[in-house]
Amino acid sequence: MTSPLGHYLVVSAALFAIGLAGALIRRNAILVLIGIELMLNAANLNFIAFWRYGKNAEALSGIMFVVFSIAVAAAEAAVGLALIIAIYRHYKTTRVDELTNLKG
Amino acid sequence: MAGVTIGSAIAAMSLRNIVHCALLLTITFSGLAVLYLQLNAQFVAFAQILVYVGAVAILIVFAILLTRGSERTPDASQKKRGLGWGLLVALGTFGVICKAILSSRLLSPNAETAPSAPVKLIGRQLMENYVLPLEIVALLLTAALVGAAVIALQERRRPE
After folding, report:
1. Sequence ranges of chain B with CATH classification 1.20.120.1200
2. Quick one: chain B helix, strand, coil %, rounded to 5?
3. Is the pTM of this model over 0.90?
4. Which of A67, B49, B72, B85 has the fewest CB atoms lying closer than 10 Å?
């Protein structure tokens, strides 16, 4: 592979796969949230790489999208961690496989 | 740098001690910021450091410290369950994306000079073309702040 864009895309795909594996495998809710954050970061890296090597870079579309995406991800992390803390206070656990109250 | 980023991400997702996971996550975020710098996106790199390394990582460490004691030693059977399927799905996703990337025709090597994104231009764009998303994000952040505080507040003990 000679293209630098391909290199960044493969790195981003690896980050996404790691985040997905973490979100699927780990049982701690905080680590599931970390996995989701990793997936979001992989998407951001994709945007920046396409902005850098794509055409019409002066429109700054990739940069703008990543700036807004970082803001939304920060809000998501804050609310998610608040939910985890509330759940911990109520059930005394953060393991997602022990929260089975809604299980039919 | 890509190796450091991916290695620390793998370690953050696989270590047993959750505090180590949070610290390695900081390295992953910093590595991503360096990758952004390599890609000539300075503003995004510093936003990444400010928001992720500065805020989200600290938030995660606080959440971990506030929920201590929930991680008892997991027995092996519980640990094993789901490991194979999760790895299979993740590796399958990685394989499909990589195959799509490597067979893509869009990856023609670009000989142009690197585009630059000066902060002045970003600010002008934010105030002209993207002013509505900016306002919506401001509203969203306010709502998220208030919502997070309300959710995490101490709940009242109701008489049962």
Report:
1. 1-69
2. 70, 0, 30
3. no
4. B72
Instruction: Decide if A101 is inside a domain.
Output: no
ipTM of the complex: 0.90
Count structural domains, chain A.
Answer: 1
- Per DSSP, the three-state class of A67 is helix
B155 to A90: CB separation less than 8 angstroms, yes or no? yes
Structure confidence by residue, pLDDT tens digits, B76-119? 445 556 788 888 999 999 999 999 988 887 766 665 677 888 88
Instruction: Look up the CATH architecture of domain B1-69.
Output: Up-down Bundle (1.20)
- Structural domain of residue A58, as residue ranges? 4-91
- How far apart CA A39 and CA A62 sit, in angstroms, is 17
Rounded to whole angstroms, the Cα distance separating A37 from A34 reads 5
Closest CA to A64 of A76, A75, A72, A55: A72
Provide, as residue numbers in chain A, all residues whose Cβ is less than 8 Å from the Cβ of B97.
Answer: 9, 13, 16-17
Residue B14 CB-density burial (10 A; 0-12 exposed, 13-18 middle, 19+ buried): middle
pLDDT tens, residue by residue, B50-66: 999 999 999 999 999 98
For residue A102, being part of any structural domain is answered with no
